[in-house]
């Protein structure tokens, strides 16, 4: 199945399953991104996680090396899929959400 054009979707294949993912600004915070990940063959089966940068942009400029190490990459997307499957049984339910902050994934209820 082809992904829709002009939706800024990226494709990723892991464990024989095709996924799509998209990154958008988190309008609720200045230092975060919303990342949506879903299955290509079941587009409504998806999850969203908030990616928080490990710096406060209002306080200081980030070191460029740290930003490059903490960006949203295909490796991070694969790790998020694994986290969703292990912690939310994603695949059985349609949606779930969590966050990536301080170099680790966190369940929605954790602070």
Question: What are the SSEs and their pairings?
Answer:
Layout: E1 10-14, E2 17-25, E3 32-39, E4 46-52, H1 64-69, H2 74-88, E5 97-101, E6 104-107
Parallel strand pairs: 4-5
Antiparallel strand pairs: 1-2, 2-3, 3-4, 5-6
Would you kindly provide a brief summary of this structure?
This protein is an alpha+beta fold. It has helices at 64-69, 74-88, and strands at 10-14, 17-25, 32-39, 46-52, 97-101, 104-107.
Distinctive features:
111 residues; 6 strands; alpha+beta
What does this structure look like?
- By secondary structure, the protein is an alpha+beta fold.
- It has one domain.
- The chain is 19% helix and 34% strand.
- It is built from two helices and six strands.
- A six-stranded mixed sheet has the order 1-2-3-4-5-6, with helices on one face.
- A hairpin with a 6-residue loop joins β2 and β3.
- The protein is globular and about 35 Å long.
- The chain starts with 9 loop residues before the first strand and ends with a strand.
